[in-house]
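FORM 7B: Structural annotation worksheet

SECTION A. Query
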Amino acid sequence: MTRFDGREKDELRPIKITKDYTRYAEGSVFIEWGNTKVLCNATVEESVPSFKKGSGEGWVTAEYAMLPRATQTRNRRDINKLKLNPRATEIQRLIGRALRGAVDMRELGERSITVDCDVIQADGGTRTASITGGFIALALACQRLMEQGILEKMPMHHYITAVSVGIVDGNGLLDLCYEEDSAAEVDMNIIMSDGAGFIELQGTGEHGTFSQEQLEEMLQLGKKGIMDLMEIQKTALDGLELK
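SECTION B. Predicted structure
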């Protein structure tokens, strides 16, 4: 099968990471993943939600938004409807769950880190790009807390990343671009830690069912992509070791 952009079935799109993209955030990353571009900013606050007060533990959460012309047609801003649309709500919860899997909340202490993921341009995989870039922004924020003497050690102990896989015209493919994603018979997002443990799987038969053999093929493609992505993350973080 010849892919839309000429890649091999197990090949990621080109990925570029720009650290410290904005001036004020404790951790900032601009991730360009093919034609998908997401700005990830991590903000540290010396407070926690009410359900964490007095616990000695911190909190990590995320917010996600797609700018009005991130796609071919203009999206209306959520503020016009006075609430997030269901898709944005689901995605930001997913990002938050994924990033919390990297952090020891007691070592973080009673403070919060919010990772804002704003999609500048969308071409498939915005949630996986947000998790992958958001992780780096989160790590940069924790490094800054250590540099300032607020934290004695890094509270993050796992690399976390995410990638999409799918079945298109009967073929398993890694990292779907928009044209592939919109035509896929099966679409799946895989989130994993550096211990090869799954954090979350989101798979849907868009146009019917899929077999166990197809599932296993997608998982193998996803694991290969995850390992490649973690090397990109480690390079961006100058080889930061998390234990």
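SECTION C. Observations
The first helix runs from residue 86 to 100. The two ends are 41 Å apart (CA to CA).

SECTION D. Sign-off
Analyst initials: ____
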